[in-house]
Specification:
Elements: E1 5-9, H1 16-30, E2 37-41, H2 47-54, E3 60-63, H3 80-85, E4 88-93, H4 96-101, H5 106-118, E5 122-127, H6 131-135, H7 139-154, E6 163-166, H8 180-195, H9 199-204, E7 207-209, H10 215-222, E8 229-232, H11 239-253
The structure holds 1,3-dihydroxyacetonephosphate.
Length: 254
Amino acid sequence: MRQPLIAGNWKMNGTRSSAEALIKGVLEGAEKLGKAEIAICPPFPFLEAGERLVANSSVRLGGQNVCTEASGAYTGEVSAAMLAEFGCSYVICGHSERREYYGETDAIVAKKLAIVVENGMKPILCVGETLDQREQGKTQEVIAQQIDAVIAQNGIASFAELEIAYEPIWAIGTGKTATPEQAQEVHDFIRQRIAGQDQAIGAKVRILYGGSMKPGNASDLLSQPDIDGGLIGGAALAAEDFLAICRAGEAAAG
Ligand SMILES: O=C(CO)COP(=O)(O)O
């Protein structure tokens, strides 16, 4: 049985005070939950407040990105060691926005996954296809390439130490959600791809869904057999919405 993970990706939103209020709101509601794991990934400047506020709670903290290198002359970058020092348990790697706007290739993403694990945290590897690719029937081909690149560079064993998020690009921030059946089909494909190399790792790896997940559709998505949680964007910016999704995760955990 895979414990559901509901993670909020705040992206580049909020102010110091709104971030603190949001964290406090999540913490209040999270106290009543126990079966699902809950994580929040605020922008880097708010991690310090995050670490202070979530201390002694079950809510985990995550970074949205990380540098491929350990330290040195990399202006503007943030290292995995820094994220670990500020209490991060998770780091989102290879989000489609990073792949698209900042040129992150599969090779760069694989390096990020490795350095996150070296620093004692868990990466959340994001994969997903564009609308064009889906309409051309290339969804599985694209996902396979993104997964296989990590297997080739970091080995199949690396999948024992990470989480995956399937985020169809056409569903991110668009209000269009993959149907539970569409998402389940891709989640199953990802799991089979990994299980084909290592049965036990395939059975264990958590695969989250991301892309316009909201209180109104979370239950249907999270009750699919291979959907093990959510990576939530917009709906993670309102504590009540995020907590409603967390409760759906709890219910799916049985
Ligand atoms: O990109 C996402 C999470 O990483 C999903 O964003 P939305 O929930 O806003 O569609």
